[in-house]
Structure formats: C-alpha cells, structure tokens
Amino acid sequence: MSWGFLRDLLSGVNKYSTGIGRIWIAIVFIFRLLVYVVAAENVWKYEHDEFECNTKQPGCENVCFDHFFPVSQIRLWALQLILVSTPSLLVVFHVAYRENREKRHNQKLYRSAGQIDGGLLCTYLISLILKTGFEIVFLVLFYKLYNGFKVPRLVKCDMSPCPNAVDCYISKPTEKMIFLYFLVATSGVCIVLNVSELSYLIFKYSIKCYTKTFSKKQQ
C-alpha cells in the first residue's frame, strides 16, 4: 500500500493549522507514519507463518491464532493512522469551499480563506474532536482485543479442534511489545496535543468574543 496520499493530506493541512496542530502533524508523520512504513510493518509481516503450536493437529494452529489475534495489530495500527488523519480533510474541504465561493462571486469574501474563524473554526474544532475520539477508541480496542498492552511469549490454547491444551509461541514478542508501547505512547501524546489545541482555540475565541462584547457595551 502506498502512503503517499496520507503524506500529501498532512502536508496540505499543515498550511491551515495552529502551532500545536503543526506539532501534531510532525509527530503523526515522523513518529507514526514513517515508523510504521520503515520498521513496524516488517515486524508483523510473517506473524501467522511464525506462530507455532506444539501439535500437528490440522486446523488447531489457525484456530488458536485467530483466537489470540482476532485482528492483526499492524492492520489495526494502519486503520488507526488512516482514521485519525482523515478528519483533517474536513478543514481542507472547507478552505476549498471558501476559495471556490470567492471565485464564483468574483470578490474577496474572507480576509483569508485559510484563517480559522467563523464556520472554519467550527469545522476545525469538529476535526479535533473526531481525531481525539478515534485515538481513544483505538486505544480501548487494542486493550480489549489483546488483554492489555502486552505481547506474551507463550499462550495456552484448548479450543477445538486442538486435542488438548496446547502451547503456542508468538514470534518476536519483545520487539512487538516495544512497538506496541511506542504506539500507545505516541497516541497518548497526540491526544494531549489535540485536547490542548481544542482548549487553546476555545479559550482564544472566547476571549475574542468577550472583548468584542465589552467594546460594544463601552461604546
């Protein structure tokens, strides 16, 4: 899969982001997307082939693997990256709508099409809420699906068609656990940045509205 479209999306959003938003984009691009493409993807590349159980019973190994890994961790991480990044499209579309509206009316309707105010501010806030929501949902999913943020070396499986409780061994558990911790840490940092940016924008425009109201009363 080519991740070029996600890189282009993040580059486009960077023009309309606040300072905190640009830090979020840098973390997503450098510490999540590049780490996924360059290193993490290869760690999970042959996870099914390297999953071994101490039995030759046909079907047992597949059933046990499906039980302990109902969704591949690396595919879930990829889905998280996509869903966390796509709310930024709302901002890009809104700016494009503003620019198109100015062209149709052939006049300047906004001080700047990319300035975060009015309707674009609402769109930006919604995108931040969606991104934060997706981050939290995926962290909960990881925790629930894999019984915590850990990768065990050995799992015991007694599901049919296994003849009895068999021992199954997961390949490269330490390496996978390191990447899983890295994923959780970067997700946590991104949540903090999103909440900080959300609070900053709400505070900034609350002060702005209060100042305008106060000025009108003074006049």
Looking at this protein, list some descriptive labels.
single chain, 219 residues, mainly alpha, de novo design (two linked rop proteins), 3 strands, membrane, Gap junction protein
The CATH architecture comes to: Up-down Bundle
Instruction: State the helicity in percent bands.
Output: 55-70%
**Main beta-sheet strand count, sense and barrel state:** 3 strands, antiparallel
Uncertain segments:
none
Count of helix runs? 7
How many strand units?
3
Provide the structure class.
mainly alpha
Specify the overall morphology.
elongated
> Considering the protein shown, what is the CATH homologous superfamily?
Gap junction channel protein cysteine-rich domain
Helix and strand element order: HHEHHHHEEH
What's the CATH topology name?
de novo design (two linked rop proteins)
Strand order of the largest sheet: 1-3-2
Mean of residue pLDDT values? 84
Proportion of residues in extended strands: under 5%
Separation of the first and last Cα atoms: 60 Å
- Total count of domains: 1
- The rounded Rg comes to 23 Å
Q: Given this structure, which CATH class is correct?
A: Mainly Alpha
Keywords: Cell junction, Cell membrane, Gap junction, Membrane, Transmembrane, Transmembrane helix
Transmembrane segments: 21-39, 77-97, 118-143, 178-203
Function: One gap junction consists of a cluster of closely packed pairs of transmembrane channels, the connexons, through which materials of low MW diffuse from one cell to a neighboring cell.
Subunit structure: A connexon is composed of a hexamer of connexins.
